[in-house]
Amino acid sequence: xxxxxxxxxxxxxxxxxxxxxxxxxxxxxxxxxxxxxxxxxxxxxxxxxxxxxxxxxxxxxxxxxxxxxxxxxxxxxxxxxxxxxxxxxxxxxxxxxxxxxxxxxxxxxxxxxxxxxxxxxxxxxxxxxxxx
Length: 132
Fold this sequence. Notes:
mainly beta
C-alpha cells in the first residue's frame, strides 16, 4: 500500500535553516502524476497548507507566511519532494507533513483549503522546533 514518509525535522535556532524531505512509495499512479504539498500543524491549531508543487515541478505555490523563505522542489526519479526552509522563526515551530494529491498533478488550490480535500496520502510528520 502507499506510504509517505517525512524526514529532516529537528531543532534549530531562529534565523537558521532546515531541509525537509518526503519520499513516497507504492502510490497507485506514477509519482509525477501527483501534485505534492507540505502542511504544518501547531498543537491546538488547524493544519495549514504552506506549499504545493505540480507533478513535474513546473509550478510552485506558497502560503503568505512562508513566501520568500521556503522553497519547495521535487525529484521524480527519487519520488521525493523537498522543503528548504530558511530564516526560520519561532512561529515556524510545528509538525510538518507532506501529502500527495490524489486529484491530479496540478496544484488546484485545495492544498490551501481547510482539510486539503483531495490529498489522500499523508505521512506521519516530522517535528520542527525553532528556538529564539
